[in-house]
Fold this protein.
Amino acid sequence: MNKLLELLTVEAVEIETAFKKASIEGASTPQEVSDRREEVIKKFLSKYFPFPYRIVKGNIIDSYGRSSNSIDCLILSPSHPYTIDPSNDKASIIMADGVDFAIEIKPDLANQNEIKRGLGQIQSVKKLARARTGLARTDLEKERAKRIPSFIFADKTYADIKTLITNIVENYVNNSIPQSEQFDMMIINNRILVFNYGAKTWFQRENFEGIAVLDAGEDSLALFLFYMNSLPKSEPEISENILSIYLENMPTGRLYTYTTLNEKLSSIEKI
């Protein structure tokens, strides 16, 4: 087995355990539980996006005067100004053109309200626009590059995955949320990855648009890192990403879709 893959399967179990521990340690206050869980993911990401990347929480502003909601984990590019306040380790300002990834943490997505909140958080990020578009060549690539790749990290969801996807699609359809303001990828730790394939999202698949589920099991965390690192950063990298090399030949699992739900999702652009 790939040694990095083996390590990441252990990391996935440790995250699951740490989330349970946070529920016990911070049981008296929901905010305490939330803070502890965010710290777990922040520490994990810091291992694989080490300095000069920085992992922070907060709201993002763009150069057009817009602002997102406060997002749990933001991975800042090495080129982002060092705006971290040393007294509290928080960023005083976070600029969209220096954000590589946005990750919202939702421990249990077996709840319609939590799904709605998570999707809303991602939408607030997707409404922002970068001024820099890197090496994008076509108009479509430039439009995509303006948006920050945005993900949802969860520990649990419904036993029936179709219920999760149904709730996501209904939320988007009922609120007429355009594809450009939808999530790019979602992970349910130790279980699945959920991709949102489309011309205006960060993941594309030939002859297919819509939501697809990858039954990744214990490899879900490793694949999450792999697919994150397969995307362009907010500025061009000098050489090939290290993680993408070492996770390149790992097993991928079974990919499946829900045709009727994707047909519903495709109707949004026509509204």
Remarks:
- The chain is about 35% helix and 20% strand.
- The helical segments are 3-25, 30-48, 112-126, 139-145, 161-174, 220-229, 242-246, 259-266.
- The radius of gyration is 18 Å.
